[in-house]
Amino acid sequence: MPEPAVTPELQFQVEQFYYCEARLLDGRQYRTWLSSCSEEVRYVMPARGNPQVDNTMRGQEEMISIDRELEGVESGGAPYREESYLHLSMRVDRAFKPNSWSENPPARTRRIIGNVEIVEVSESRLSALSNFHLYYARPSSESFLYSGQRRDVLLREGDGFKLASREIVMDLANIEYPTLGLFF
After folding, report:
1. Mean per-residue pLDDT for 120-144?
2. Strand partners, 144
3. What's the CA gap between 78 and 73, in Å, rounded?
């Protein structure tokens, strides 16, 4: 059976899913956002090293591949984040606790999602890439701009989608941000 094609309608639906997700997160509607995640979700942010170029691979794209820079559990490294639905739900619940001092008052965020590309489609799921900018501002503090790529697997559910997995590839070379504990 041939795989379903990427249609303009499917592209529109996926983009709308991402735009709605950004609106929910920027509006601090974390519980509603969490309901768009599968209970089997895997939410990962690998650390990103700065390896030297392997000159034995000269002329091959793998020589300078971004994937060579990523450090996760599979590569023997330590990711910045590796979370399940349980971890995400605990983080969401923590946002509503009165003793959540690190977010009192809450930060102001604005997510811009773009370059949405559907790279694989099947009857029940699809893989998509998207880029993001996340503006982060705190009262009486410096503001920051986060950027990176998200590599997602979305499950089809009714007329919509659920997030099955997300890998966040940050564009940072050095950690100079106040937190990586945001939902990207």
Report:
1. 93
2. 136
3. 6
